[in-house]
Amino acid sequence: MKKTRIYYTLIFxxxxxxxxxxxxxxxxxxxxxxxxxxxxxxxxxxxxxxxxKASIIFLLSLITCYSIEFLQLYQGEWMVELxxxxxxxxxxxxxxxxxxxxxxTFGIITAFIVERFTLRFLNQKSE
Length: 127
Description:
Elements (H helix, E strand, L loop, with lengths): L1 H23 L5 H19 L5 H18 L5 H7 L2 H7 L5 H29 L1
Helix pairs in contact: 1-2, 2-3, 2-6, 3-6
InterPro entries: DUF2809
Organism: Flavobacterium nitrogenifigens
Keywords: Kinase, Membrane, Transferase, Transmembrane, Transmembrane helix
């Protein structure tokens, strides 16, 4: 169990690094960062629930990403101030965009498929 969490944690931090890097390189489209954000959320949930079915992780990831995106529609003073911080900008985002919902959806689908393929490959290899 511990090794599984370690692997997911390594993937999680790698995705964070790639996501930040994607915002620093001008020729990388902005949606790549949103795509990677969703992949990061998928693996964050995986860290806490390593042995849950992938379909449950898929649904929890979608709900989390969509909730954070729709939360951007809320413009309470305290929330606007929180979004001005580094944490708020990276975690909560700045404004609602339907394109972010699409990027999140594709990011989570990709993480789900890659994980399923990888686990299937590793299970076949261990037999």
